[in-house]
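Handout, section 4.2: multi-component inputs.
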Amino acid sequence: MGRIVLDKVSKKFGDVEVIPPLDLTIEDGEFAVFVGPSGCGKSTLLRLIAGLEEVTSGDVIIDEEVVTQVPPSKRGLAMVFQSYALYPHMSVRKNIAFPMRMAKVDAAEQERRIEAAAKALNLTDYLDRKPGQLSGGQRQRVAIGRAIVRDPSAFLFDEPLSNLDAALRVGMRLEISEMHERLQTTMIYVTHDQIEAMTMADKIVVLQAGVIEQVGSPLELYNAPCNRFVAGFIGSPTMNFLEGAEAAKHGAHSIGVRPEHIAISTTDGTWKATVGVAEHLGSDTFLYVHPDGGGEAMTVRVDGEFAARHGDTVYLTPTAEKIHRFNDNGLRIT
Amino acid sequence: MSKRTLPRLLQSPAVLLLLVWMLVPLGMTLYFSFIRYVLNSLRRPEWTKPSLSNWRGFGNYEFVMSSKDFWFAIQNSLFIVCSILFATVILGILIAILINRVFPGRGIVRVLLISPFFVMPAVNAVLWINMILDPVLGLNGLAVAGINDLVASLQSAPLVGGFFSLWPEFEPISFRATQTSAYAVIMMVTWQWTPFAVLIFMTSLQSEDQQQKEAAVLDGAGVWSQFRFLTLPHLGRPIAIVVMIQAIFHLSLYAEIEIVSRGNGNKNLPYLIGEFANNNIGAASATGIFAVILANIVAIFLLRMVGKTLME
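Output:
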């Protein structure tokens, strides 16, 4: 079990309120991702749940039990840190055994759980090495192993992949997702990378300046962002925003169109523009175009075969039903 | 000229200088330790000049080993060094952990704590033996006299007077006496060198990974477990450094021993060398060679011990 409820939780560091009171429920077995730009309070929120920081007001509730005053080790949560936080003087085996050793689990049971975790994480051959002798991905696995053996009611991940290189990050992302499918344990995952959020989450919590902007499934956030911040944060490349006359035509203060929802033509269309930069990824080409008659540069995602070079004139046509409209407060108009 | 010749040529003056610096004194000591060489002898004036014709073989070594203070000096050297190491490392860790916390006036406290290290050894010894350990005028004498006065005044008090009249009169410990002068040296050197240990341990504590500690907290480790399994292994290397450096320094203690008791009941090898060197350079050199051997044995032994217990 691992249903985590935040009830009007707030956090102040001195006089600075980094998290105004907020409510949030994470259901048992859910994979929740906290995402937002750096300094948005997502890591602080995770540390409040873990108990590494004390809440200023409000309550943290795990499985119907108020744990606000319960010390971190008694909350039944396991955390994986960005820097892995492995114990450098202990072998992998002793690292994984450490929480059980602290809990005075008997030796045979310890050994059994270590073997099981090592097997699941492909660490069997490395059990007697020190963390310093492992690669980044292996260290991350050891950190996860140390979390698994505690059989926690929820896993907390604090930007666990940001120290890994791009290829390894994709691999570990899949492993963590697979682990979640297998264990069906609640996981809370903090990241600033919206791709990680989109690919892994059951539920994404978008934060800005300590405030929850929107909570929803990845596709809900993609299809119906509730404000301009979420619209710009979710999706890659980011959404194009237009204000003024173009927006007024749609009865809005500003409109947003995703790069993949713009049709392109060399002959005719709604907007005429000049190609600035063309990024060829093979499968797709991202065109950064400057609309004729001024205005912000826009990004258009076109087929990889589309031939366009700097200075070419193109015509853009947004897909009408995929235009997001926002009012002058940046909120979505439905 | 090959690629490596020029760098080597450029290095060679420094290397040669260091070699000469080290090998010439060592060679001369070895040479003197095998010949008869005294500063002043009316009976055998030919011994006052170092010369191969005065060859004595291992005679100086036999003479030193059979002299009455030699084994005592070795034992005492080890006793003093090990006691100081033990005390400074333990005190150093405790104080370093204490002042690593955030509290008002931390900067000043740190500077004050380091200051004993800047006192000259001879001054340190004079201050301690006269102002603190002196059985009459030092803190030692004053404190014991104060306790005696208090007990005496309580003996005439009602109710508890009977109990206190059973108390004996306390005697201050004289640290210049033969049995206790080593303790005086240990105390004053520990006072002086604890800051060194604190300084090194403190810098090491500041580099400790805080996320590791948080991970340990989540793993259910209490304060003691965090110290035992994280902080102490983290301090392993600094402890080895402190032990090594101090062992080398304290094997050659001299000023404190001279000032406390002029070697009465408290000699170490350097002090013995000093005594021989009043006249018998040959015996002093032989003792010097023994000191070199002892220093090496101690160094290897200590390194192994520290390495084994802390770095697993």
